[in-house]
Automatic annotation (TrEMBL):
<dbReference type="Pfam" id="PF22600">
    <property type="entry name" value="MTPAP-like_central"/>
</dbReference>
<keyword id="KW-0808">Transferase</keyword>
<feature type="domain" description="RL">
    <location>
        <begin position="56"/>
        <end position="124"/>
    </location>
</feature>
<feature type="domain" description="Poly(A) RNA polymerase mitochondrial-like central palm">
    <location>
        <begin position="183"/>
        <end position="341"/>
    </location>
</feature>
<dbReference type="Pfam" id="PF03828">
    <property type="entry name" value="PAP_assoc"/>
</dbReference>
<dbReference type="GO" id="GO:1990817">
    <property type="term" value="F:poly(A) RNA polymerase activity"/>
</dbReference>
<keyword id="KW-0460">Magnesium</keyword>
<feature type="region of interest" description="Disordered">
    <location>
        <begin position="23"/>
        <end position="53"/>
    </location>
</feature>
<dbReference type="InterPro" id="IPR002058">
    <property type="entry name" value="PAP_assoc"/>
</dbReference>
<dbReference type="Pfam" id="PF17797">
    <property type="entry name" value="RL"/>
</dbReference>
<dbReference type="GO" id="GO:0005739">
    <property type="term" value="C:mitochondrion"/>
</dbReference>
<dbReference type="GO" id="GO:0046872">
    <property type="term" value="F:metal ion binding"/>
</dbReference>
<keyword id="KW-0479">Metal-binding</keyword>
<feature type="domain" description="PAP-associated">
    <location>
        <begin position="436"/>
        <end position="471"/>
    </location>
</feature>
<protein>
    <submittedName>
        <fullName>PAPD1 protein</fullName>
    </submittedName>
</protein>
<dbReference type="InterPro" id="IPR041252">
    <property type="entry name" value="RL"/>
</dbReference>
<dbReference type="GO" id="GO:0031123">
    <property type="term" value="P:RNA 3'-end processing"/>
</dbReference>
């Protein structure tokens, strides 16, 4: 079953990671410790796992949201008796799961089996003393647990297991990668260290649920849901939480009221545009979080952006959050990536690898700018996997052909339909290893004709660019938009140069010699900024494909200069 994996790499993962062969379906399985175990091919006795892997995006989100509604967050003293805390909480109801993590001290996430247990706990909890500051009497699901006489209470000797909420530094990652026995193993190790853990996902949904407690005061039928990297299987530990206020269920209720010999409807405030309504809703919710939300700090209302939002820091969970309203197309994009991430185990491993590589070499940045975004990079990986022979993932048009009536979605005039049932999608017959795919990715985009061609995931083929942006990636749904319009020519050329250099390293390196010399090899070598590890080797590389990179950049500059001169003559 394993793909050239074993030996020291598996010892590193403490038995948490199984490496699937090419074509293995399903995304990483999240275990109790929060570490992900890659699903193997279907085997007898794994019915529960198979069932979990085949859940639709909507089913998973519904389960997570329900889970969050039964969850509380407790700030604990530095020395806490875990057994006694759970014993006290169990007096209010069965504790289904729990974990501890460190964020401005020790905190515990507690999931009850029944939502009524939270009401029981809230009735027994006291209001904090107002001796120094007056408190806002909003009873949330955030609590502080203290010991009345800490000196007299015996603290258990067993240390708490703290769930990690951020990934390890690149330097430590490189050390782990050097002990693996193949590039494929290295890529799965990186995935295991960087992907969201089970605990971190629970924390993200809880953050959304806590915000919903405020929005329900104004809009009782609304929900607050995460989207983007928190739910699309490509989220990295430490990333922000994108969430949106959803009124979709309210619309469903309105359609039900049309039956019968008469009609009744609510009297509601009417505004000239949906955008104005969105701005006013977010303005009120932003003020509410700022004035009354426990742990909600640095609240910024960015209401005049193309997509109005409220940014804030949620101290209890440690997340930076962006709240918007009914971002339906963004949710469809999240579901599309979720499907691609579930179809084949190699998809996520390659995406995480390319993203990490890009960040190390300064190709991406958390701040807005002219560089390639993680979303654009992910789309480039998907397009590359569609172009393999045979393809590893289907095109969006192929997914649309498999859609039934319930999968049809027209949003703002855009057709966002595609199949949601993973069982309807045939597994790929492609058996290429991750070693091969990584090298081929760099080769493909190192030689891609960006001047002429664009990237289209709906068609799964290169098409002529409709306009002159250096990098043109079609929005999968809003086909008149270029998701990489922000990228300028120097940043694209830097990406091409790094891709060619990386392809050269993978082709020319001597793994055995590098291991003997205790030098980073394979993926580990790609995660060291070029030129810093060994300047003499860097010079030798530049004589090869590196010099070709420089020549291509010069040719590109000459071409741009010639075009500018022609335009000037035309004027």
């Amino acid at each position: 079953m394993a793909l050239r994996a074993g030996g020291p790499a598996l010892a590193l993962l403490r038995g948490r990671l199984r490496l699937p062969g090419p074509g293995a379906r399903g995304h990483a399985r999240l275990g109790r410790s929060g570490a992900a175990a890659q699903p193997a091919a279907e085997e007898p006795g794994e019915d529960a796992e198979v069932s979990t892997r085949k859940k639709t995006f909507a089913e998973v989100q519904t389960e997570r949201l329900d889970q969050a509604e039964r969850t509380v967050l407790i700030k604990c003293p530095s020395k806490i008796n875990e057994k006694k805390l759970l014993q006290y909480l169990s007096s209010h109801g069965n504790v289904k799961s729990h974990f501890f993590f460190e964020n401005r001290g020790i905190s515990a996430l507690i999931e009850f089996s029944e939502k009524s247990s939270i009401a029981s706990l809230q009735d027994a909890v006291g209001i904090p003393s107002a001796s120094e500051h007056h408190v806002v009497p909003f009873k949330s699901r955030l609590f502080t647990f203290t010991l009345k006489n800490p000196g007299s209470q015996r603290v258990e000797e067993t240390p708490l297991h703290l769930s990690p909420q951020c990934h390890i530094p690149v330097k430590d990652l490189i050390e782990k990668l050097c002990l693996a026995d193949s590039i494929s193993s290295q890529m799965y190790i990186l995935l295991n260290e960087y992907q969201l853990t089970e605990e971190n996902i629970k924390l993200r949904f809880l953050a959304c649920s806590l915000v919903r407690d405020f929005t329900c005061a104004y809009f009782p039928d609304s929900t607050v849901k995460p989207f983007g990297s928190s739910v699309n299987t490509f989220g990295k530990l430490g990333s922000d939480v994108d969430m949106f206020l959803d009124f979709h269920d309210t619309g469903k209720q309105a359609s039900k009221m049309e039956k019968g010999p008469f009609e009744m409807e609510y009297q509601m405030k009417r505004l000239p545009s949906e955008r104005l309504a969105t701005q006013r809703i977010l303005s009120v919710i932003g003020d509410c979080l700022d004035n009354f939300g426990p742990g909600c700090v640095n609240v910024q209302k960015i209401l005049h952006a193309r997509c109005p939002l409220v940014k804030f820091s949620h101290q209890p969970t440690g997340f930076l959050c962006d709240l918007s309203v009914s971002n339906s197309i963004a949710i469809r994009s999240s579901e599309l990536l979720y499907i691609y991430g579930c179809l084949d185990s190699r998809v996520r491993a390659l995406v995480f690898t390319i993203r990490c590589w890009a960040r190390v070499h300064g190709l991406t940045n958390s701040a807005p700018g002219t560089w390639i975004t993680n979303f654009s990079l992910t789309m480039m990986v998907m397009f590359f996997l569609q172009r393999r022979s045979p393809p590893i993932i289907p095109t969006l048009d192929q997914l649309k052909e498999l859609a039934d009536e319930k999968d049809k979605h027209i949003i703002g005039g855009y057709d966002c339909s595609f199949v949601s049932d993973l069982r309807k999608i045939k597994p790929t017959k492609n058996t290429e290893t991750l070693d091969v795919l990584l090298g081929e990715f760099f080769e493909y985009f190192g030689n891609f004709d960006f001047r002429k061609n664009s990237i289209n995931l709906r068609k799964g083929k290169e098409v002529n660019k409709p306009e002159s942006s250096p990098l043109y990636i079609w929005n999968p749904f809003e086909q008149d938009l270029n998701i990489s319009k922000n990228v300028n020519q120097p940043q694209l050329e830097k990406f091409v140069a790094m891709a060619r250099e990386s392809a050269w390293i993978l082709q020319k390196e001597d793994k055995t010699q590098q291991i003997m010399d205790k030098e980073p090899w394979g993926l580990a070598a790609l995660l060291i900024p070029f030129g810093k590890s060994n300047s003499s080797k860097m010079k030798n590389r530049m004589k090869g494909i590196g010099s070709e990179t420089i020549r291509s950049l010069l040719d590109s500059l000459k071409l741009n200069n010639a075009n500018s001169q022609q335009k000037a003559v035309g004027k």
